[in-house]
Amino acid sequence: MGNMAADNAAGKRINSLLDAGSFVEIGGAVTARTTDFNMQEKETPADGVITGYGVIDGNLVYVYSQDATVLNGAIGEMHAKKISNIYDMAMKMGAPVIGLVDCAGFRLQEATDALEAFGKLYQKQSMASGVIPQITAIFGTCGGGLSIVPALTDFTFMEAKNGKLFTNTPNAIPGNDISKCDTSSAAFQSETTGLVDGTGSEEDILADIRSLVCMLPCNNEEDSSYEECNDDLNRVCADLANAKEDTAIALTMISDDNIFCEVKKAYAKDMVTGFIKLNGMTVGAVANRSKVYNEEAEVEAEFDGSLSADGAEKAAEFVQFCDAFNIPVLTLTNVSGFTASKYDEKRIAKSAAKLTYAFADATVPKVNVVIGKAFGSAYVTMNSKAVGADMVYAWPDAEIGMMDANQAAKIMYADADAATIREKAAEYKNLQSSPLSAAKRGYVDTIIEAADTRKYVIGAFEMLFTKREDRPAKKHGTV
C-alpha cells in the first residue's frame, strides 16, 4: 500500500475502488516546492493527491485521488505534475485513468506555476482521448478550471449530496443564487447539462466505475472486454415487442444475463445510450425512447417519438466513443421526425448533423433494428443503410418511409373526402411505409419477429467481427 494514509478519505476511496491490496502508490513523498507566502511552513503530504496504480477485477488501471485535508485539496504545481505523470504511464501501458476529485481549485500561492502544470494536464488528457478510457468521479468540489477535467474525460460520476461541479459558482451567475437554482448540484449536472453519467452515494459510484471498467476495452488497440457467455444465444425474448416504448428495458432483455450499463441516464431521456453484452462481447447501444418506466412499472416520463437536439448530441458523443475504442454499435430505431420547439430549433440541424456524421464516420460494425416508426430524415440519421449501417433488421409492424400514412394521404389528396383519405392512407402504408416495401428496395436486409431479435443481432455481430472499412485520407472531419 506504499505510505498512503488508510484512514484518509482519498485513500479509502482508492481502497474501495480497487481489488483488495492491489494499490501501489507512486510519488508519495512529493511535496510542494514553492516558498512564497511562507508555504515552506505548511505541510503538504503527497502535495494533496494520492497517485498510483492497481487492478479492477484483474484489469490494470491508474488512479489519482485528491486529498481535501491538504490545503483544502487546492491544486499546486507538484499536485498537477503527479497526475500528468500517471497519464504518461497509462499511455505507455495502455490502461484507463480514473480520477477521484475533491478539491477547492487552484492554489493561489503558486499562481502561474499551478496554472502551467494544470494546462499540461489538459494537454495530456487531450492526447489520451480515444486512446485510453478516462473516468472521473466527483466527491467534493470540482470548480472553475477543474470543471474542464471531467468534460475532457469519457465518463463522469458524481456523489449526489456533497459533489459540486461548476465553472462559475451558482451565486456568480447574474440573476441566480444557489437557493433558486443550484447549478453546481449533481441533479443539475446530470439532468440539465448532461455532463454527468451517473449519480449516487460514494459506494454506488465506486461500484458503477468497477462495472464500467469491466465493460470497456483497456485501450484502443487491446481488447479485454470479452468474457464467457453462459446465456442462450438463441434465447427468445417473448415480451420484447411490449418494451418498444421504453428501449432501456428492451436492451436489458436482449443482453446476456440482462446486463445493461446505461450512461447519461438522467439526460435527454428520449434517447437511450449504454453498453450491453452479446455473446460475451461489449456492444454500444443507442435507442429512441417514447416512454420511461420506473421500477414499479409506472410511466415516469413520456415523449412524442421525435429526435431532439439533446438526444442527438448525447447519441453522437456515445457513437464516437464506441468507434474510437472499436466497440460495435447497435441501434433500435423508433423515430417519427425531429422535435419541434424553439429550444430544439436553435440546435437541431447541427445536432442531427453531428449524429449523422458520427454514424457515417464510424468504421465499427453497425447493426440497426427498426422496431417502430422510421420516418423522414430523422430515420436516415438513425444509423440507416444510407449512412452506412452494415445490417438493418425490421420488426413486422415497423413503418419505414417519409411520414405517417394518414398525413401523407391528406397532403396528396387535400380535397378528397374522409373515405378516400382512409383508402389512400391504407394504400400508402402498404406501398410506401411497410417493412416489406423497404426490404424489396434493399433498405432493410431481413424482417424478423421481435422475439428473435437477440438471436439475429448476435449473428450479425459475429458475421461482422472481421469488418474492415477505409475512409478518405484526411486529418479529421470538421462536423
UniProtKB/TrEMBL annotation:
GO terms for molecular function: ligase activity. The keyword Aminoacyl-tRNA synthetase does not apply. It comes from the Bacteria. InterPro entries: AccD/PCCB, AcCoA_carboxyl_beta, ClpP/crotonase-like_dom_sf, COA_CT_C, COA_CT_N. Residues 232-463 form the CoA carboxyltransferase C-terminal domain. Residues 1-167 form the CoA carboxyltransferase N-terminal domain. Keywords: Ligase. The keyword Ligase applies. It is an enzyme of class 6 (ligase). It holds the Pfam family Carboxyl_trans. Its EC number is 6.-.-.-. PANTHER family: PROPIONYL-COA CARBOXYLASE BETA CHAIN (PTHR43842), PROPIONYL-COA CARBOXYLASE BETA CHAIN, MITOCHONDRIAL (PTHR43842:SF2). This is Acyl-CoA carboxylase subunit beta. It comes from Dorea amylophila.
